[in-house]
Amino acid sequence: MYLTLLPLHSLLRWLVLICLVASIICAYRGWLTKQRFSRFANFLRIMTVNVLQIQFCIGLGLYFLSPLVSYFLNNFKTGIHMREIRFFGMEHITMMVIAVGVISVGSGKINKMTDDRLKYKTMAIWFTVALLIIFSSIPWSFSPLTSRPNFRPF
After folding, report:
1. Residue-wise pLDDT tens digits, 17-57
2. For labelling alongside 12, which of 45, 63, 100, 145 has CA 20 to 30 A away?
3. 10 Å Cβ neighbour count for 62?
4. pTM of the predicted model, to two decimals?
5. Where are the membrane-spanning stretches (predicted)?
């Protein structure tokens, strides 16, 4: 199962990023041009949240199946001093939980609002903050800290 979830998680991150960037562009455009909050903007918001939550569930499954995380949890005193083990055992999941929380709270706030400009502003700010958190926590292929391939084959 681990060997299936890992490439799926790696592939799905691109869909998360595409949805998130599209939502942010739509939000800033709507906010700055003072548009009405459109059905399309709401669709992007919901799609982004749903794709992110699916990715998060797959990530949680990986967390409990990963040999790196298992090593980290069973050998905490040594694992905490190993960059790659610490990244996957603690840093990556912590930052992604925060990012999912930021997007979920931001989306929930939008759902309760009636002012269209405020909806766009809220979506722009909360989703941008989450995107920055996500960007800092993905193990990019070019990262000097912990790198992984941009695309993992199945």
Report:
1. 999 999 999 999 999 999 999 999 999 999 999 999 999 99
2. 145
3. 21
4. 0.91
5. 12-31, 43-65, 85-103, 124-142
Angle between helices 116-137 and 39-65 (to 10 degrees): 30
How remote is the C-alpha of 135 from its chain's centroid?
Answer: 8
- φ, ψ of residue 36 to 5 degrees: the values are -75, 150
Q: Are 133 and 102 in contact (CB under 8 A)?
A: yes
Would you tell me the crossing angle of helices 39-65 and 2-32 to the nearest 10 degrees? 150
CA distance 58 to 85: 19
Spell out the residues 6+ positions from residue 21 whose beta carbon is closer than 8 angstroms to its own.
131
